């Protein structure tokens, strides 16, 4: 494993900011495929850091015991936004900038912009496939899933299937994606899978275990690893859902949402999943029910909700008829 | 007059209510003015308030030489929750409102707020957004334009600020209110002056004077005797901006001022060591230019942006001829 510093700048306080990536090279020099993993673009999303740790740990072991297994290259950027990670914030401190809204063509020369552009360019130049790992925000908890914008689904779905995540969600394009890492790399024909899992500021070891196994399978399928370690289990096939295959429940009232289901549970249409409560008057404002039959793959964790707030998403067993 | 445009109950107390002020006929050409997209941009808020009083005075006959002829709407506060905390964004979702347009009619609170503004301004002909420099920067008063064709540059000239500047294309621009207005066919202008967290009366006078002049020029407002003043404006394309970065990290002491013209080599400031106070670097203008933006926060990293110069040699003048 080789450690490379991509970008650094001195801080007025005396230390410096650095982007570090770990490189595992092909055993015989010529790489069949270059796969990159990046995590921590948002500094409060820690699931990806743990996944990177698992990958680096496992790949180091393989390199020590079976170096010939490396037929391709792996690049891992475990902490893409160290200033925000150090402060446990989603956004870059001091500026309040979102690094995942500064990818692709972007003017400006603030440190976060320079930093984002540096990572973007490096990924573009050194990857045949990228996995961009995110946790959810403070509000929602997610089953391990890969999200694919519809226009890229033909190329990305076969790759995503190799990762054995619980859900692969193919969703429509929206303006918010135009400045993200995943969208811009895919636009430049660098296939990029965007992983969402868990919730920010926490680690769900079970989720990361599943993702770790899935990513090892991906490396194997891609020919980067000639073989898999014996302790990587085979994994079930993901459920693929298309835009009409996802139903969501939103709050109709503002109050406290208390859920009565568990993430990953199968639910039936109109099944009770929780309540929105008025804590001041002590009344139940709303009984929340499942919007369809299927797998509950998103669930509200932050209880304070306004009317319109997303409470749950269900991957439907059957798409509704148009 | 003051009109409620959004009323959403909150989980624990008083509802969140957004207002707009409105004057003039129902079906006239409409100018929409928006301030308070971020919760720390005071100049816009003050201008909106003063302008509202002025228009109320006209309506009540206290400014008898003026008549309102077009439709004028003012939206003083958009990110209500951020204003409650004095931060640019609401800490609950860390979402920059000006990266959330067009929002959603039913969605998370910030999305709903943005969509409300979009729906209430969609039929306008002109849109003005009141802004300051970005966090930690001060802007000389100027007007920013999206897609600055000849008609828009001429319109911008009527706003009375001497500097016009093109908004550079970026991957996240589509999430800005100004760009959404542009896509809906409005002529949109961003007036920027001063810095966050600071009320600057002189800049507010300039903005107020400029907006009143614009309204007179476009027939939204009529004065019995005063003519519309035609003012010159130097306009700068996006590629004519010269960012100035530090080479050292430390404390930046500016020795120049926004709104001044610099010769190549003129001193913009210096960077001193935080611990020992020694001068680490003198920062000079790399070329001739007008200082439109200057760093306000003294702590700077290496490669930090401390000033933006508009290159004088590439400016285009718009004289008061037509």
Provide a quick synopsis of the model.
The complex is a heterodimer of chains A (322) and B (322). Chain A is α/β, with parallel strands linked by helices and 322 residues long. Chain A has helices at 47-65, 82-87, 111-126, 153-161, 181-187, 205-221, and strands at residues 2-10, 16-24, 34-39, 73-77, 129-135, 140-149, 167-171, 192-198, 239-241, 246-250, 255-259, 266-267, 272-278, 283-289, 294-300, 304-305, 310-316.
CATH class of the largest domain in chain A equals Alpha Beta
Question: Can you count the helices of chain B?
Answer: 6
Strand fraction of chain A:
25-35%
Radius of gyration of chain B: 20 Å
Describe this structure in words.
With 322 residues, chain A is an alpha/beta fold. Chain A folds into two domains: 239 residues, Aminopeptidase, CATH 3.40.630; 71 residues, RNA polymerase II/Efflux pump adaptor protein, barrel-sandwich hybrid domain (OB fold (Dihydrolipoamide Acetyltransferase, E2P), Beta Barrel). Chain A contains six helices and 17 strands. In chain A, strands 1, 2, 3, 4, 5, 6, 7, 8, 9, 10, 12, 15 and 17 form a 13-stranded mixed beta sheet that branches. In chain A, helix 1 crosses helix 6. The mean pLDDT of chain A is 95. Chain B is of the alpha+beta class. Chain B has two domains: 234 residues, Zn peptidases (Aminopeptidase); 75 residues, RNA polymerase II/Efflux pump adaptor protein, barrel-sandwich hybrid domain (OB fold (Dihydrolipoamide Acetyltransferase, E2P)), CATH 2.40.50. Chain B has six helices and 20 strands. In chain B, the strands form three sheets. In chain B, strands 1, 2, 3, 5, 6, 7, 8, 9, 11, 12, 14, 17, 19 and 20 form a 14-stranded mixed beta sheet that branches. Chain B has a four-stranded antiparallel beta sheet with strand order 16-15-13-18, with no helix packed on it. Chain B has a two-stranded antiparallel sheet with strand order 4-10. The relative contact order of chain B is 0.14. The interface between A and B is large, with 48 and 48 residues.
């Amino acid at each position: 494993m080789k450690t490379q510093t991509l970008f650094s700048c001195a801080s007025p306080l005396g230390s410096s900011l650095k982007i570090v990536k770990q490189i595992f090279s092909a055993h015989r020099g010529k790489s069949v495929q270059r796969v990159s993993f990046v995590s921590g673009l948002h500094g409060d999303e820690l699931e990806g850091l743990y996944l990177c740790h698992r990958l680096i740990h496992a790949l180091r072991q393989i390199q020590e015991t079976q170096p010939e297994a490396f037929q391709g290259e792996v690049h891992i950027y475990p902490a893409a936004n160290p200033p925000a990670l150090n402060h446990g914030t989603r956004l870059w401190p001091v500026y309040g900038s979102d690094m995942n809204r500064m990818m692709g063509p972007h003017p400006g020369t603030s440190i976060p912009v320079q930093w984002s552009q540096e990572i973007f360019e490096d990924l573009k130049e050194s990857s045949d496939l990228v996995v961009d790992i995110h946790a959810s925000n403070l509000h929602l908890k997610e089953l391990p899933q890969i999200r694919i914008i519809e226009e890229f689904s033909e190329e990305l779905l076969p790759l995503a299937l190799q990762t054995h995540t619980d859900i692969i969600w193919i969703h429509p394009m929206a303006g918010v994606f135009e400045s993200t890492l995943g969208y811009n790399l895919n636009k430049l024909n660098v296939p990029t899978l965007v992983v969402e899992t868990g919730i920010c500021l926490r680690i769900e070891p079970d989720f990361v275990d599943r993702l770790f196994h899935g990513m090892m399978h991906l490396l194997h399928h891609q020919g980067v690893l000639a073989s898999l370690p014996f302790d990587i289990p085979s994994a079930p096939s993901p459920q693929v859902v298309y835009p009409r295959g996802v139903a969501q429940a939103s709050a109709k009232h503002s109050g406290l949402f208390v859920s009565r289901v568990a993430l990953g549970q199968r639910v039936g249409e109109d099944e009770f999943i929780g309540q929105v409560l008025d804590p001041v008057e002590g009344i139940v404002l709303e009984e929340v029910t499942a919007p369809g039959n299927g797998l509950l793959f998103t669930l509200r964790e932050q209880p304070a909700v306004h009317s319109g707030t997303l409470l749950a998403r269900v991957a439907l067993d059957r798409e509704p008829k148009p | 007059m003051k009109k409620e445009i959004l009323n959403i109950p909150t989980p624990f107390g008083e509802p969140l209510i957004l207002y707009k002020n409105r004057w003039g006929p129902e079906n006239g050409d409409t100018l929409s003015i928006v301030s308070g997209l971020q919760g720390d941009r005071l100049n816009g808020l003050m201008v909106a308030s003063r302008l509202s009083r002025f228009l109320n005075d006209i309506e009540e006959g206290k400014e008898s030489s003026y008549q309102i002829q077009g439709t004028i709407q003012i939206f003083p506060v958009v990110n209500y929750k951020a204003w409650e905390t004095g931060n640019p964004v609401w800490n609950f979702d860390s979402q920059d409102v000006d990266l959330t347009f067009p929002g959603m009619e039913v969605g998370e609170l910030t999305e709903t707020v943005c969509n409300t503004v979009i729906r209430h301004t969609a039929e306008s002909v002109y849109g003005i957004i009141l802004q300051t420099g970005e966090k930690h920067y001060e802007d000389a008063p100027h007007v920013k334009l999206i897609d600055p064709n000849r008609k828009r540059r001429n319109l911008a000239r009527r706003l009375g600020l001497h500097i016009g500047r093109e908004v550079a294309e970026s991957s996240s621009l589509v999430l800005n209110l100004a760009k959404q207005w542009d896509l809906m066919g409005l002529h949109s202008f961003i007036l920027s002056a001063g810095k966050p967290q600071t009320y600057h009366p002189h800049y507010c006078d300039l903005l107020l004077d400029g907006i009143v002049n614009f309204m007179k020029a476009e027939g939204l407002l009529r004065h019995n005797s005063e003519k519309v003043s035609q003012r010159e404006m130097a306009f700068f394309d996006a590629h004519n901006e010269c960012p100035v970065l530090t080479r050292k990290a430390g404390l930046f002491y500016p020795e120049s001022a926004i709104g001044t013209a610099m010769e190549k080599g003129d001193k913009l400031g210096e960077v001193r060591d935080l611990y020992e106070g020694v001068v680490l670097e003198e920062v000079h203008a790399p070329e001739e230019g007008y200082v439109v933006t200057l760093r306000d926060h003294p702590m700077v990293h290496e490669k930090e942006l401390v000033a933006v110069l508009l290159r004088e040699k590439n400016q285009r003048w718009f004289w008061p001829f037509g």
